[in-house]
């Protein structure tokens, strides 16, 4: 069992025992000294804390110390009233601090109470309230700033996670301090009430039961009561000061002492001015000790100036030496070898879209892209780097995959892109252009034309949405390239948390990590979501003992995911499909050649061109109807027909009959033939 945890539990029990069980004076003295020591430790730790979170347990600590101090008050009251004595510590405080004088002791006690209650406690309470409110209000902005740094590549995911946790801890801490500061306030009130009750109770006990004269009663019980009040209020004052330090402490690399001294005496100019003011005051108030103060300030300012000049010269020498060393030493090119999976480079005219301070929300949209693709495709999208590039046109942007440009676009700032979905009622004036994601005809319109365009039936999008849509489609298109082995391992680890048996059976006993990656890449390449990892892994575990061919395993997985695939590409509004001629399917099956390096089709180029031309005619027919072209083939032919057409028609969806649900209804609009 952890000793520290046991110690806290023992402390809680001791607090209860002190309240309930009469304490001997020797033990009472020990507990009072312990209370004073703990208060000193808390104050010193607060002074040397770098920031508030360095003492994140302070609210709970404040509760325990307050309860401990209150229990000692109860115990000391029992001793003072019941036995007329309270130990050496209380008696010493009453005689030494109060000068063995009732009036002096009472006044000092009241002054401490007033300072603690009206100055320190009141201020700390207000600061706690404001800090809690502002910390909670600032949380969304801090979270967005962390996401922005993450997406721009300034920090990695681990650092982002640490910073998010720190923001949450800050909110929890200041929220707790807002309530815990009430402990200090009410403790001061209790101290005043306890002192009054001690005096009244002691007076009654001395007069009624002790038959003591009035002056003796006042002397004995009042001195003890004032000593008790002082011995409890001094630690309370120390903890109140610590509370004020904690809640007013800003984050810093230095402790409080270093920070205050360095900031107070860092400017020789200020010290010279202060010395001059002290010299003038010497003749005004007639106190020549001010001259001594002025001389000390001048000496201190001269010393600081000399140190600054020495540091400056030293810094210049070090800089020169570093420049020489940089020239001499061989260049470190390791950092230059890093290739970002996804990059978005843009001209300076697009910077306002990515700048949060200028109202840009492009960074937020990039975060949403990663979330959207995780939900739609089940893939882990790598960090998207956003960079400005002065070599581009002001309103141009470029999308790169693994350092290579794959697509680009150009925007018109302060304009909107309007596209006719085919149902627009009228033409609208604008600047003709092409939508970058899908290559659709579009026009640029001004903001004043936006409402009219939407009323006419046009689809109107703003520049950030254009970039976000374009980025999303590019990532989908190259998703199979972006899925690395480490990403697959992350997906497997996620499944393993809830379905460990599946992962343990499959990897690495039946398939390697690379073979699983190939299957997942094949699925993503054809736009099939891999979010249902459990079904995918179970299917691979079923068929891996039969074959380790990634293409065949992909076909088995596609059939297992048939419901999701058919729902994605076949809808009530898009049920028209293209089928293959049985002779064409037989020709493809006869042309399959299997080698050690893979499978390929041995079909003459002229025959392939005829097949592509026939397919294109049927696709144009579907396009005129505003529907996505979908080809249905037999299970053994689907893969090879897809391979044959993917260069000429990259976006073509090819499904097998086994991937269709029994309840799915399709209508063939034509048949692809080889002649």
Give a quick account of the main beta sheet: strands, pairing sense, barrel closure: 4 strands, mixed
Q: How many strands appear in the DSSP assignment?
A: 14
Mean pLDDT: 81
Q: Report helical residue fraction.
A: 55-70%
Helix-strand category: alpha/beta
Distance between the termini: 83 Å
- What general form does the structure show? elongated
Taking pLDDT < 50 over at least 5 consecutive residues as the criterion, the unreliable ranges are: none
Strands ordered across the widest β-sheet? 2-1-3-4
Radius of gyration: 40 Å
Number of helices: 24
Percent of sequence in beta strands: 5-15%
How many domains? 4
Question: Can you tell me about this structure?
Answer:
The chain has 675 residues and is of the alpha/beta class. It has four domains: 3-262, no CATH class; 266-325, no CATH class; 342-480, Glutaredoxin; 565-675, Rossmann fold (3-Layer(aba) Sandwich), CATH 3.40.50. Helices cover 64% and strands 10% of the residues. The protein contains 24 helices and 14 strands. It has helices at residues 3-20, 25-48, 58-83, 88-96, 102-152, 157-209, 214-248, 256-264, 268-285, 289-328, 351-354, 362-376, 450-456, 463-477, 479-482, 485-496, 500-506, 513-525, 533-543, 550-560, 562-569, 582-590, 605-624, 635-645, and strands spanning 342-346, 384-388, 396-401, 404-410, 415-419, 431-434, 441-446, 459-461, 576-580, 592-595, 598-601, 630-633, 653-656, 667-672. The strands form four sheets. The protein has a four-stranded mixed sheet with strand order 2-1-3-4, covered by helices on one side. A four-stranded antiparallel sheet has the order 6-7-5-8. Strand 3 (396-401) and strand 4 form a beta hairpin. Helix 5 (102-152) packs antiparallel against helix 6 (157-209). The chain is elongated, with a radius of gyration of 40 Å. It starts with a helix and ends with a strand. The mean pLDDT is 81.
């Amino acid at each position: 069992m952890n000793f520290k945890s046991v110690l806290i539990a023992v402390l809680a029990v001791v607090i209860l025992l002190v309240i309930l069980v009469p304490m001997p004076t020797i033990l009472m003295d020990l507990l009072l000294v312990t209370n004073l020591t703990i208060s000193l430790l808390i104050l010193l730790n607060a002074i040397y804390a770098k920031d508030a979170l360095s003492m994140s347990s302070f609210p709970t600590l404040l509760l325990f110390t307050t309860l401990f101090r209150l229990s000692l008050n109860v115990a000391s009251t029992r001793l003072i009233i019941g036995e007329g004595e309270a130990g050496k510590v209380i008696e010493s405080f009453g005689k030494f601090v109060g000068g063995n004088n009732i009036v002096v002791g009472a006044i000092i006690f009241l002054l401490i109470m007033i300072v603690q209650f009206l100055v320190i406690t009141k201020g700390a309470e207000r600061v706690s309230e404001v800090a809690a409110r502002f910390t909670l209000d600032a949380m969304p902005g801090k979270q967005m700033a962390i996401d922005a740094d993450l997406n721009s590549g300034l920090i990695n995911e681990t650092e982002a996670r640490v910073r998010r946790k720190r923001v949450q801890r800050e909110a929890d801490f200041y929220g707790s301090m807002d309530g815990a500061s009430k402990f200090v306030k009410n403790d001061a009130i209790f101290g005043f009430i306890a002192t009054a009750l001690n005096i009244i109770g002691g007076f009654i006990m001395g007069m009624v039961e002790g038959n003591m004269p009035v002056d003796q009663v006042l002397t004995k019980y009042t001195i003890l009561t004032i000593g008790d009040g002082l011995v409890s209020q001094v630690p309370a004052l120390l903890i109140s000061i610590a509370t004020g330090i904690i809640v007013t402490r800003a984050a810093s690399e230095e402790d409080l002492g270093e920070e205050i001294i360095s900031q107070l005496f860092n400017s020789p100019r200020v010290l010279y001015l202060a010395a001059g003011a002290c010299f003038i005051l010497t003749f005004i108030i007639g106190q020549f000790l001010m001259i001594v103060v002025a001389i000390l300030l001048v000496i201190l300012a001269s010393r600081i100036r000399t140190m600054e000049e020495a540091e400056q010269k030293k810094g210049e020498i070090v800089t020169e030496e570093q420049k020489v060393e940089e020239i001499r030493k061989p260049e470190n090119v390791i950092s230059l070898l890093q290739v970002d999976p996804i990059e978005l480079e843009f001209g300076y005219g697009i910077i306002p879209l990515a700048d949060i301070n200028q109202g840009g929300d492009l960074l937020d949209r990039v975060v949403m892209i990663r979330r959207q693709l995780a939900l739609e495709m089940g893939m882990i999208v790598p960090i998207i780097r956003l960079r400005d590039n002065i070599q581009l046109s002001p309103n141009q942007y470029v999308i790169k995959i693994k350092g290579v440009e794959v697509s680009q676009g150009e925007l018109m700032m302060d304009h909107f892109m309007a596209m006719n979905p085919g149902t627009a009622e009228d033409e609208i004036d604008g600047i003709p252009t092409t939508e970058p994601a899908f290559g659709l005809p579009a026009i640029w319109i001004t903001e004043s034309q936006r409402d009219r365009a939407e009323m006419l039936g046009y689809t109107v999008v703003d520049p950030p949405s254009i970039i976000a849509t374009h980025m999303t489609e590019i990532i989908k298109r190259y998703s199979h390239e972006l899925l690395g082995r480490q990403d697959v391992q992350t997906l497997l680890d996620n499944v393993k948390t809830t379905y460990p048996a599946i992962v343990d059976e499959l990897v690495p006993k039946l398939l390697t990590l690379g073979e699983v990656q190939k299957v997942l890449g094949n699925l993503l390449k054809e736009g099939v979501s891999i979010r249902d990892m459990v079904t995918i892994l179970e299917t691979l575990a079923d068929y891996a003992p039969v074959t380790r061919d990634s293409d065949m395993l992909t076909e088995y997985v596609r059939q297992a995911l048939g419901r999701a695939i058919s729902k994605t590409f076949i809808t009530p509004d898009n049920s028209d499909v293209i089928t293959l001629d049985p002779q064409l399917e037989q020709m493809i099956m006869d042309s399959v050649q299997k080698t050690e390096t893979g499978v390929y089709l041995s079909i003459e180029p002229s025959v392939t061109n005829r097949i592509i031309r026939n397919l294109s005619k049927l696709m144009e027919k579907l396009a005129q109807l505003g529907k996505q072209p979908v080809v249905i083939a037999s299970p053994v032919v689907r893969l090879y027909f897809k391979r044959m057409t993917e260069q000429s028609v990259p976006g073509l969806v090819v499904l097998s009959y086994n991937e269709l649900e029994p309840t799915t209804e399709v209508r063939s609009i034509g048949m692809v033939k080889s002649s």
